[in-house]
Amino acid sequence: MRQLLLLSLVGLGAQLVDGSLGMAYGVTSTTLLLAIGTNPAAASATVHLAEIGTTLMSGAAHWKFGNVDWAVVAKIGIPGAVGAFLGATFLSNLSTEVAAPLMAIILLSLGVYVLARFTALGLPTSRLGTPLRKRFLGPLGLVAGFVDATGGGGWGPVGTPAILASGRLEPRKTIGSIDTSEFLVAVAASVGFVLGIGSAGVNYAWVAALLIGGVIAAPVAAWLVRHIPPRVLGAAVGGLIVLTNTRTLLRSDWIDAPDGIRAVFYVVISVIWAGAVAYSFSQHRRHRDGERRLVAAGQVTDHSPSDTPRRDSGATDS
């Protein structure tokens, strides 16, 4: 019972992060399941089955708050579903000895990326431009879906920054569209895992626990997308993912590091993690204060969920 309650809280926290940043539900949840000894394919299958419900609820909430671009959902979601099915099939055919450290490496890489990106950049403000094209979103969805299924997460960490970097879709619609299209990815990955490992490999009580927590958090996260500091939250989650998956790798048969070496790694990562969160918080406050000064001077007309102030386009662009 205690384990199910913990999983529900993890699902709630992971969905709050995912719905606010457009990433990290799968990475966070899968990391925990691996840490308690779950088979990699079963862990990813469990998370994706739960995501069918959480992404459906999250997409509906984002749609209600006007955070969804349906053209982007279709262009990236369908290729993403194909990639997820292929990734699930690939992971299902790997042995546990190979799959566990491989998944840990993927998750660790995503964690490092999330930690570095949000510590250094926060969630940057886009400049709106021409519509996103299929030739960009199609390959992006295919790769992100494959990584998501094989790594137990990755749809958001791969898709969200790429769309933000394109400068063609505002941050809240990027996050809402990625979260909504993830429903297609979750369904396709789940089908792939059921065909690959069978339903007997999945603990449906764990699925229900993650689902309940995620469903509760989804509408809250959609509302909070404009109100929480993404830079701080992203740095905190990234550090947790790095620490947990480093632990998995150091204890794997590939490395099997001595206790003393493990302790050194844990201390170093913890110090870097704490420093990253502190720096992110200070930068968030600095940008927030800067935006307030611009508002007082009449140079800003609206607010972005980013940590970067946005000037009135009419005052700065020709």
UniProtKB/TrEMBL annotation:
Protein family per UniProt: Belongs to the 4-toluene sulfonate uptake permease (TSUP) (TC 2.A.102) family.
Transmembrane feature ranges: 70-91, 98-116, 136-159, 180-198, 204-225, 232-251, 263-282
Localisation per UniProt entry: Cell membrane; Membrane
Domain of life: Bacteria
Ranges of biased composition (kind: Basic and acidic residues): 304-318
Organism: Mycolicibacterium poriferae
Assigned GO CC terms: plasma membrane
Region (Disordered), start-end ranges: 296-318
Topology in the lipid bilayer: Multi-pass membrane protein
Keyword Membrane: yes
Recorded coiled-coil stretches: none
Protein name: Probable membrane transporter protein
Cited Pfam families: TauE
Native organism taxonomy: Bacteria, Bacillati, Actinomycetota, Actinomycetes, Mycobacteriales
Keywords noted in UniProt: Cell membrane, Membrane, Transmembrane, Transmembrane helix
